[in-house]
Write a sequence for this structure.
């Protein structure tokens, strides 16, 4: 019976280890739970968010600042994970026990607004606050978060896309890093000199490669809906041009080679961003990368520039994804919830809120916040960030269409992008596919009795 | 086969096969431990990434990930909560399932086959669509915000275990229970005195699985509990994950610590598979 | 006679009472209400609205994604379930030998089923990476240009099937427990008859293991048709819907598009598929599953 190959001595040793572990565990039971920084007498405002990982620290700092500033309310934060956050939110709202404020990452506020999950925030806003939002905030912020004439979400940080580039690569290729190309066509010419392709056609470095359909479309004057009429604009000449651009830049190397190259970049998150590892000379990416470059790769010399438009296209154009602060229907402390929303976002006091944006590395809602001394001080450390603020002031920023089927729509846009960038559908076929697919879903919704 | 003790060659082959298979089985663990000892910048960098001998070894070793991971979440509190849930679930699920399975496997009653199929059917509907009504039931019972939704159902048998144990009971030789019946024992006595001891390997398996499921489940607690003091270790692990900002090394350090207890538990529990039971006779 | 019948029945119901009560208390209502919901338009937040059989009609006649998802899932189940059983049994047989270090081996093979999914998923993304992955690296050494695995619609489903084999440690444990329940006298009898190891495997071990194999078959079918987590973490259904498993599509419809009525209809169609297969399998038991007594 020595099948498990243990002599008695080792058995005893293992027993000792297990015994020790057991006593440690038992000791654990005796210890009382550590107390948090919460104050007990104030009204609790329940706040759910998904800011784990590196976002945890700035989130806690923000909550503490709010709690310090308050006599009436105090935040009770709860961290969610992205897979189940939505189910939990919906179940607790349906069950009559929703949180008071939720920070949402995905572009889903219209879906939630239509379903009745969240409530409009404009009734809470003072006329001053509304005026500030409508007059001083960045143009993209003024139009974000609205559904059916009401404001359902206050933006808390938003993404834009600009070019990050490596001056050292420029110099190495005999290019002047002080002259960044001013048209998309010139950018491609410059990129030609920066690509590194090996003998078999395998790519080891890309000068530039446009990322995806939704971020490229605005440059060509495209987009997915008309802000004035509220109608979808899918099969348009501009969008078709954007898709051709995506396809052509890949065809040049062969679709498979690009897929293979991009796959070698692995997770592409945080410290693993391909740009930090010499895989790109120029790349269009979001503003959160600035803080991460600062943190993970301070030795890398880089600059930023707006993505140049094609000839006849739109300057300083981009697509914006936004985080929203929303309030579920039936929130028990709506006033407290609003108190926190306006505090953090800066809707109430843009100057005071300036201290929170640098710690996240996020874009503020208004130039007023960006001009505050705290923010300016941070900008001195990361001058590259200024390009983002520059683009933020532009009128050419597209947002996710505020339609009640926006999640479905954007999933199909993503698929269209996949078809084209993988070369399985021609741009012409892909755009027709997108239009047909969305029309089909709209008919389905209509037949079921949804009012869009 | 194991009874063939004379030849050494088959044993050598067995070892070689097992070792070859062990390498891929170990890879996730190796990567997890290696990552837990790296700095965040080392994990996905082009020179330090991937799974080769060159890239898997941390350089330098970053031991502080462990204390940092431990600090980031209230480990002791979460461990206590987790163990509490595990204890009730394991005891509840194993005892009740063993009992129900005996009924299905060894007794005759009207509608048995139909009821058994109904039980199997309860596993065939995706939980996604029953989640809301289940939630409504627990809320109606006033159990929302407590551990009750996470523990009480275990005492009403788990279809997975009931089915598994039924299969085991059916294979056990009938002579022992027959003998007991002759001695005038009723079914409850036979179940407790004869069947339960005989089914020990299967019961251990159930206990192990139940422990593992509860240990890993973070959605259950997340759904029914709103108090941060009542969450479990699996929930704690989520703190290192985030969009655009996961902390891989700390996540893996915490995960390594997280699976250690299960590893130790399994190492000891699997003895019961080896030892078997005297009456049915281990093959050695 | 009658009282004996009654007594027997009562004892039987007594034993299954915990499950029966639990079923009535916690399971029956959710089941019935999800049937009801499948005939409604229901966005989770506002009360459901009756739409009759419209969800089912659309699903069967007018939803190409439903057909894709069903096909992708059927294929996954058809390959991964038998493969999982063969590998699980083989591994358990190997681990049932009388060799040294068994405890260690068993623990090692159980490991992949306890490592958190994020870790397993990440390591697989690395291993199968077409550019720097170990698998293609090794294929390259023997002169084969490997595919793009998870990034190629043709290979992505196979990659996930391969990955599902890492979870075989769970069923291995069940087989091991089953192997330990095989009475020694059967082997002694076989030895007396002069059976060689292969014959003993065919005529004693495998037949005696069939109840447990049957269990894993049924649970495998149920699990494969509800396969979700790995695909959600690794491919999100892509590339080009090649890994759009049924449960993934259902999840999208339910929680992302807030179409719980339609998702409920999807779920009941899946339920019907699973139960049809299960009933056929249960019927087939008589032919191949050996219960000792």
């Amino acid at each position: 019976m020595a099948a498990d190959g243990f002599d008695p001595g080792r058995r005893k040793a293992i027993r000792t280890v297990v015994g020790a572990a057991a006593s440690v565990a038992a000791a654990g039971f005796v210890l009382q739970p550590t107390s948090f920084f919460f104050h007990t007498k104030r009204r609790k405002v329940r706040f759910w968010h998904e800011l784990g990982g590196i976002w945890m620290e700035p989130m806690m700092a923000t909550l503490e600042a709010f709690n310090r500033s308050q006599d009436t309310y105090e935040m009770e934060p709860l961290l969610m994970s992205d897979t189940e956050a939505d189910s939990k939110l919906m179940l607790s709202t349906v069950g009559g026990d929703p949180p008071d404020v939720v920070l949402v990452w995905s572009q889903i506020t219209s879906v939630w607004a239509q379903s009745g999950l969240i409530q409009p925030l404009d009734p809470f806003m003072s006329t001053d606050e509304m005026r500030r939002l409508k007059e001083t905030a960045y143009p993209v912020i003024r139009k974000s978060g609205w559904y059916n004439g009401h404001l359902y979400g206050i933006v808390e940080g938003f993404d834009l896309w600009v070019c990050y580039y490596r001056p050292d690569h420029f110099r190495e290729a005999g290019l002047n890093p002080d002259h960044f190309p001013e048209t998309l066509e010139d950018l491609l010419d410059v990129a030609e000199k920066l690509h590194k392709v090996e003998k078999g056609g395998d790519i080891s470095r890309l000068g530039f490669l446009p990322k995806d359909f939704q971020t490229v479309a605005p440059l060509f004057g495209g987009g997915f809906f008309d802000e004035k009429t509220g109608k979808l604009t899918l099969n348009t000449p501009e969008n078709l041009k954007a898709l051709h651009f995506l396809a052509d830049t890949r065809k040049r190397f062969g679709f498979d080679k690009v897929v293979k190259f991009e796959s070698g970049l692995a997770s592409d998150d945080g410290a693993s961003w391909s740009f930090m590892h010499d895989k790109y000379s120029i790349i269009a990416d979001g503003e959160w990368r600035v803080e991460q470059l600062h943190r993970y790769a301070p030795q890398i010399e880089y600059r930023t520039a707006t993505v140049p438009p094609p000839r006849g296209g739109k300057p300083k154009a981009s697509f914006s994804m936004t985080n929203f602060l929303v309030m579920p229907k039936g929130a028990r402390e709506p006033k407290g919830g609003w108190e926190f929303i306006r505090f953090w976002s800066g809707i109430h006091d843009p100057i005071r809120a300036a201290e929170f944006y640098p710690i996240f590395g996020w874009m503020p809602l208004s130039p007023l916040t960006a001009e505050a001394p705290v923010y300016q001080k941070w900008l001195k450390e990361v001058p590259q960030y200024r390009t983002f603020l520059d683009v933020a002031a532009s009128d050419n920023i597209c947002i996710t269409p505020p339609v009640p089927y926006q999640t479905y729509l954007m999933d199909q846009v993503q698929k269209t992008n996949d078809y084209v960038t993988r070369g399985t559908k021609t741009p012409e076929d892909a755009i027709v596919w997108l239009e047909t697919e969305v029309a089909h879903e709209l008919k389905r919704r209509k037949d079921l009795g949804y009012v869009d | 086969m194991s009874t063939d003790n004379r030849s050494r060659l088959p044993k050598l082959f067995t070892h070689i096969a097992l070792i070859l298979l062990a390498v891929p089985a170990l890879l996730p663990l190796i990567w997890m431990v290696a990552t837990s000892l790296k700095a965040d910048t080392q994990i996905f960098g082009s020179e330090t990434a991937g799974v080769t001998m060159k890239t898997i070894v941390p350089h330098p070793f970053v031991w502080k990930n462990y204390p940092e991971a431990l600090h980031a979440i209230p480990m002791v509190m979460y461990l206590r909560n987790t163990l509490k849930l595990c204890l009730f679930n394991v005891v509840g699920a194993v005892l009740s399932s063993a009992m129900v399975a005996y009924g299905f496997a060894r007794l005759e009653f009207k509608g048995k086959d139909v009821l058994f199929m109904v039980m199997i059917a309860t596993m065939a509907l995706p939980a996604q669509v029953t989640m809301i009504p289940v939630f409504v039931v627990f809320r109606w019972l006033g159990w929302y915000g407590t551990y009750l939704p996470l523990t009480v159902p275990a005492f009403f048998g788990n279809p997975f275990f009931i089915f598994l144990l039924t299969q085991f009971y059916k294979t056990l030789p009938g002579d022992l229970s027959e003998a007991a019946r002759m001695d005038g024992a009723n079914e409850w006595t036979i179940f407790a005195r004869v069947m339960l001891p005989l089914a020990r390997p299967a019961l251990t398996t159930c206990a192990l699985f139940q422990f593992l499921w509860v240990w890993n489940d973070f959605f259950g607690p997340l759904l029914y509990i709103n108090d941060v003091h009542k969450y479990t270790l699996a929930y704690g692990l989520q703190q290192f994950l985030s969009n655009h900002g996961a902390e891989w090394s700390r996540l893996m350090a915490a995960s390594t610590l997280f699976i250690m207890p299960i590893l130790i538990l399994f190492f000891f529990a699997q003895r019961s598979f080896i030892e078997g039971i005297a009456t049915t006779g281990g093959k050695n | 006679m009658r009282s004996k019948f009654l007594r027997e029945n009562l004892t039987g119901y007594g034993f299954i009472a915990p499950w029966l009560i639990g079923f009535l208390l916690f399971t029956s209502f959710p089941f019935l209400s999800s049937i009801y919901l499948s005939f409604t338009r229901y966005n989770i937040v506002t009360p459901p609205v009756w739409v009759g059989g419209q969800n089912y009609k659309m699903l069967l006649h007018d939803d190409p994604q439903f057909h894709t998802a069903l096909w992708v899932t059927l294929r996954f189940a058809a390959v991964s379930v038998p493969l999982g059983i063969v590998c699980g049994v083989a591994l358990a047989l190997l681990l049932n030998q009388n060799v040294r270090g068994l405890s260690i081996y068993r623990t090692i093979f159980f490991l992949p089923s306890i490592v958190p999914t994020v870790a397993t998923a990440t390591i697989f993304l690395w291993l199968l990476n077409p550019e720097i992955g170990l698998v293609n690296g090794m294929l390259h050494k023997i002169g084969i240009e490997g595919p793009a695995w998870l990034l190629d619609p043709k290979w992505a489903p196979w990659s996930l099937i391969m990955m599902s084999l890492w979870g075989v440690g769970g069923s291995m444990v069940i087989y091991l427990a089953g192997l330990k329940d095989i009475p020694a006298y059967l082997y002694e009898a076989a030895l007396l008859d002069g059976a060689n190891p292969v014959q003993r495997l065919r005529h004693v071990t495998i037949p005696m293991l069939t109840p447990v194999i049957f269990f894993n078959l049924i649970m495998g079918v149920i699990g494969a048709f509800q396969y979700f987590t790995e695909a959600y973490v690794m491919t999100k259904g892509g590339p080009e819907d090649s890994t759009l498993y049924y449960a993934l599509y259902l999840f999208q419809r339910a929680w992302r598009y807030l179409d719980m009525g339609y998702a409920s209809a999807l779920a009941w169609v899946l339920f019907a598929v699973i139960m049809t297969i299960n009933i056929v399998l249960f019927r087939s038991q008589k032919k191949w599953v050996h219960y000792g007594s």
